[in-house]
């Protein structure tokens, strides 16, 4: 059975004190689902979050990293730096990174390689913008994002890759893909993987949905057969809401 995952992407929210408060609230929540639970605080709070949560089943993950091992890349963070503060998983390719920071498929392929070479697990994000959805181009866009950044990898690399389909038009907008739209796209993604790597790989990779997942819609979305969990933005900033989503499985 595929691993179910609920990951909270805090984005650029919460200073040190706010991180401590939210983490304390998260620690007090009872998890009833078998889903793996992850939170991604900002870089400056990773160490503190890791220290506070290391004996719990909440994993602390990173929102981004650079592809280089070290060097003259002002403002950037490397895979080994993340590992040194307890991080084992990194989100790559979030649409906000692509849109505001110019991350291309080519850059993302290098980041994926660097993460895997450092034994980090990757949550690889992709998704179409509204114009692509409206013009019926959404599958072609998603297929090219996946191919360009991941299809140079060996099949065995997919043990350490989680996919996150996040339609850009649904992120932070309050508008979600319908459960059927999510299921259709997730099935298409699995077919794309299967064509390249075979059914075993395709059926073993967890595919998360992201984009305005809330306590009131999580159960229906997670109930779809090819949806293995969620990448949660806004609702991850409230411990009760986040755990209501975790427990929606
Ligand atoms: P949202 O963000 O839940 O606030 O829509 C999702 C994401 O960006 O991962």
TrEMBL record:
Its EC number is 5.3.1.1. CDD domains: TIM (cd00311). GO terms for molecular function: triose-phosphate isomerase activity. It comes from the Bacteria. Its main location: cytoplasm. InterPro entries: Aldolase_TIM (IPR013785), TIM_sf (IPR035990), TrioseP_Isoase_bac/euk (IPR022896), Triosephosphate_isomerase (IPR000652), Triosephosphate_isomerase_AS (IPR020861). Coiled coil: none annotated. Keywords: Cytoplasm, Gluconeogenesis, Glycolysis, Isomerase. It catalyses: D-glyceraldehyde 3-phosphate = dihydroxyacetone phosphate. It is found in: Cytoplasm. Substrate binds at residues 9-11, 172, 212, 233-234. The active site is at residues 94, 166. Pathway: Carbohydrate degradation; glycolysis; D-glyceraldehyde 3-phosphate from glycerone phosphate: step 1/1; Carbohydrate biosynthesis; gluconeogenesis. Involved in the gluconeogenesis. Catalyzes stereospecifically the conversion of dihydroxyacetone phosphate (DHAP) to D-glyceraldehyde-3-phosphate (G3P). Belongs to the triosephosphate isomerase family. NCBIfam families: tim. Homodimer. This is Triosephosphate isomerase. It comes from Mariniflexile gromovii. The lineage of its organism: Bacteria, Pseudomonadati, Bacteroidota, Flavobacteriia, Flavobacteriales.
